[in-house]
Amino acid sequence: MxxxxxxxxxxxxxxxxxxxxxxxxxxxxxxxxxxxxxxxxAAFKHCVDLLAxxxxxxxxxxIAGIESRGFIFGSALAYKLxxxxxxxxxxxxxxxxxxxxxxxxxxxxxxxxxxxxAVEPGKRVLIVDDLLATGGTAEAAIxxxxxxxxxxxxxxxxxELEFLNGxxxxxxxxxxxxxxxx
Length: 182
Ligand code: AMP
Description:
alpha/beta
């Protein structure tokens, strides 16, 4: 379906640029491919601008982006808001001392790491990823930021797969922002 791009229908326009890939990375999974959002300058800009608009009045010290698609949206948002960026990475990638949390994925098991000194205790952190599915990744990221003393002001996604109910895994007091839903 072709959606015309206007300021008013930005979420719908972004949604129209997401491509479904059946049976990736496993049979039965419909992968929401956001590379087709990124390659469309207007769609990518709307993602960053809508998130920035939502958070511009809030006091944020750092954006923590989850590897790897959370880096793309998270770093652009950090630049736009003028705050620092912290990478939450797959195991073995961060060079200094790390904390690690393991979790279940929609399609497998994984771990995430953060530098133990990435934030000063009490600093306000917004976590960013591309998509909320079963919630395991976001749950692990929240635990990591808390472990190193960060105060989580919220977690933001471009996409939420509502039918997977991932938000149920996240702490009740964690504010969830998403631009579009399936
Ligand atoms: P989950 O831990 O199940 O919430 O999975 C979220 C992470 O896995 C995000 O970093 C997504 O990029 C990726 N992911 C999980 N399921 C999908 C899907 N159906 N389409 C695209 N990305 C997905």
